[in-house]
Structure formats: structure tokens, C-alpha cells
Design a protein that fits this description.
The protein has 213 residues and is α+β, with helices and mostly antiparallel strands. Helix content is 20%, strand content 36%. It is globular and about 55 Å long.
Length: 213
């Protein structure tokens, strides 16, 4: 990848590649967290660092918008409280007119560009890659940690695999998705990542905790 970051003006909007080149000093949001690992861990966490985060907004009643998004993503935009995966993309419903798309960081610029080239009419594409991070919580007591942390009913009968909710994790906002019976994904703001890490370690201490960085 070139050291020169390309900037393209599309539809009166400057589109810039935010992905850092290999020789940069980019650091993940949780780079300075001091993790205390237990030898008998039953709760595990890992950060999916340097992921791309694209927020897409548009009207679900706009057939051209929905068709254009599906063409670029290779899948239809998911409906209420659900998510879909398509190749390297994970698409999450956030609200009636908003979706969060994540992917490897190096792919975010290309996706943003393709969306702007394809979509027409009234829509919004925002690259929030630098402002959020992804955390995966797993293990036989992962759900118990979340019971301490969120007010939403996460029993698998109410929160099945693939379901997505916007909720509070402790005292910060979080987009929560169930990946498996005891595996969950959290999208949190970068500025709260240290706080979330500290909370998880404290909440998981009685079960044994280990970082899978």
C-alpha cells in the first residue's frame, strides 16, 4: 500500500482512506490495557482490532437504495434487530434507517467508494473506523458476565444467534450481537474501550478470565 493516502471527491464529499499503512504507528484502542489472565479461565475476550466500520443510512422504502446496497454488499440489508454476513462484510441493523457494516480495515475505503458510486438519491455513508472497536466475549460464563453488564434480556430464547441490539454495557453504549451459544460481539466507542476492558475483567474475575489478544 502506498504511503500517500488518496483523497477522492465524490458527490461533493471527500472520501479518504483511513487505513494505516504497514509502516505507521497505528495502535488499537485497547493497546494499553493491562490484562490479568487466569489459568482456569471460563471467560475469554479478544479485540478485532483495526476493523473497518461503515455506517449506512437510507430509507428502507426506497427500492433503488435497497437494491443498490444489496448490489454492493452481495446481500440484502437486514431487517429489525438482525444481522447478515456476506463474504468479508457483517451488516447489522441499528435502526429503521441505519445499518453498521464491518469488515477488515483495509477493505473499508473500497466499500465506501463503491457505495458512493452506486447509490443515488437520499442516503448517507460515514466511515467511523477510527472511532469504534470490536470486542468478542466467549466462554462458558460469557453470558453470566453480560447478565451483570446489560439490562437487555440475553437469554438465547429472546436473543438468538445473529440478533443485534443497541443497549448499555455498564454505563456506555454498545451494539451487541450474539455469535453463538456462548459467544458475543460488542461494538463500543474507542473512548470507552479502556473502561469496557476494566469492567469485563472485574465482572469475569469470579469465573476466571483470559485475554486472547
Amino acid at each position: 500500500m502506498s504511503d500517500i493516502t488518496p483523497v477522492i471527491v465524490m458527490n461533493d464529499c471527500a472520501v479518504m482512506n483511513q487505513f494505516a499503512s504497514d509502516n505507521s504507528k497505528a495502535e488499537s484502542p485497547m493497546v494499553n490495557v493491562k490484562w490479568a489472565n487466569s489459568s482456569n479461565a471460563t471467560v475469554f475476550a479478544k479485540e478485532l482490532a483495526f476493523s473497518g466500520h461503515i455506517v449506512l443510512r437510507g430509507k428502507p422504502t426506497d427500492d433503488a437504495f435497497m437494491a443498490g446496497a444489496a448490489k454492493v454488499l452481495g446481500t440484502e440489508l437486514p431487517g429489525k434487530l438482525s444481522s447478515v454476513e456476506s463474504g468479508e462484510y457483517v451488516v447489522r441493523w441499528l435502526s429503521p434507517d441505519t445499518w453498521l457494516i464491518t469488515m477488515p480495515g483495509a477493505a473499508a475505503y473500497a466499500l465506501e467508494t463503491r457505495l458512493r458510486e452506486t447509490l443515488t438519491g437520499h442516503y448517507q455513508v460515514v466511515n467511523e473506523s477510527g472511532g469504534q472497536t470490536l470486542l468478542v466475549l466467549s466462554g462458558e460464563n460469557a453470558e453470566n458476565v453480560l447478565h451483570k453488564s446489560v439490562h437487555y434480556d440475553i437469554h438465547i430464547s429472546n436473543f438468538p444467534v445473529g440478533k443485534v441490539v443497541n443497549t448499555n454495557f455498564a454505563k456506555t453504549g454498545c451494539t451487541l450481537r450474539r455469535l453463538g451459544e456462548q459467544e458475543f460481539e460488542l461494538v463500543v466507542r474507542r473512548s470507552f474501550s479502556d473502561y469496557v476492558a476494566a469492567w469485563i475483567q472485574d465482572a469475569a474475575a469470579e469465573y476466571g478470565f483470559a485475554w486472547q489478544g
